[in-house]
Design goal:
Mean pLDDT: 91
Structural class: alpha/beta
Strand content: 15-25%
CATH class: Alpha Beta
Helix content: 40-55%
Bound molecules: adenosine-5'-triphosphate, magnesium ion
Low-confidence stretches: none
Largest sheet: 8 strands, mixed
CATH superfamily: P-loop containing nucleotide triphosphate hydrolases
Number of helices: 10
Shape: globular
Strand order of the largest sheet: 3-4-2-5-1-6-7-8
CATH topology: Rossmann fold
Number of strands: 8
Radius of gyration: 18 Å
Distance between the termini: 13 Å
Order of helices and strands: EHEHHHEEHEHEHEHEHH
Length: 250
């Protein structure tokens, strides 16, 4: 059974950075097979992990709708797409990466979303750990592409707007009956420990802080992969202390 970690939160709070650090630590711990899912159409996760993506699920769907004649005779369209998606997975040292992208062409998004949900649910079963980096905001929740997961980790900065967004995500998760076994949140980019009252208001389990890390700033400026981040980086050390709360199988 795979263990799925989905990451959500306001724009720019560090979702992609943390997804990369999770993959880095899961690999370091030899935790098992890992699938990184870049569910943000901007494909930042791949870049943060130093992976070049050739094809996205979106581009595959576009190609199929542009040239339906490429579907072998007698093969159902969904089976063909599933096969194409499977071959689009990039193999990197220690993990695989699936990039969602977004289809450009016209068409029914319900069909696309349903198909994506089915295909990814199937693919995810083949891995021990799946880490999903979502785009900012709430759309992935309302579209239900973030549905069942083991840990839903909401990332916030130490700002009122970030915390408000975290609270809203929690409300939406309840409203939409999204079943996460753990509903967690952490503060990224700051040492500021939150007061109990603020935590209570957000309604998610507060697991700690990842401080601002000059080595991440440097890597980001240089476009360097976070898989190469110095093992003693303050962000990695902080995450090592709380990782059990995110992905320890109990
Ligand atoms: N702990 C940290 N210390 C220093 N810089 C950080 C830290 N976390 C994230 N950053 C930097 O903050 C910026 C935004 O981070 P990131 O891209 O991970 O956010 P995001 O939530 O994925 O953004 P988006 O909503 O656009 O997808 C990046 O330049 C990243 O390098
Ligand atoms: Mg991001």
């Amino acid at each position: 059974m795979s263990y799925t970690i989905a990451i959500a939160g306001k724009g720019g709070t560090g979702k992609t950075t943390l997804a990369s650090l999770f993959i880095r630590l899961l690999k370091e711990d030899n935790s098992g097979s890992i699938l990184a899912v870049d569910a943000d159409p901007n494909n930042n996760l791949a870049e943060n992990l130093g992976v070049k993506v050739k094809e996205t699920v979106g581009s595959i769907l576009d190609a199929v709708s542009r040239s339906p004649e490429k579907i072998p005779a007698g093969m159902p369209k969904d089976t063909f797409i599933e096969y194409q998606v499977q071959t689009s997975i990039t193999e990197a040292p220690g993990f695989d990466l699936l990039a969602m992208g977004r289809p450009e062409g016209p068409g029914c998004y319900c069909y696309v979303n349903n198909l994506l949900r089915e295909i990814t649910a199937k693919l995810m079963k083949d891995y021990d750990y799946v880490v999903i980096d979502n785009e900012a905001g709430f759309e992935h929740l309302s579209r239900r592409t973030t549905r069942a997961c083991d840990s839903l980790l909401v990332v916030s900065d130490a700002t009122r707007a970030g915390l408000r967004a975290a609270g809203r995500i929690n409300a939406l998760v309840k409203e939409l009956n999204i079943s996460a076994k753990r509903n967690l949140f952490l503060i990224n980019g700051s040492d500021k420990i939150l007061e109990k009252e603020i935590i209570k208001k957000i309604g998610l389990d507060y697991i700690g802080n990842i401080p601002a890390d000059p080595l991440i700033t440097k890597a980001s400026l240089n476009g360097a992969s976070l898989m190469e981040l110095d093992g003693g980086a303050v962000s990695l050390n902080a995450l090592r202390k709380i990782k059990e709360k995110i992905w320890h199988r109990s």
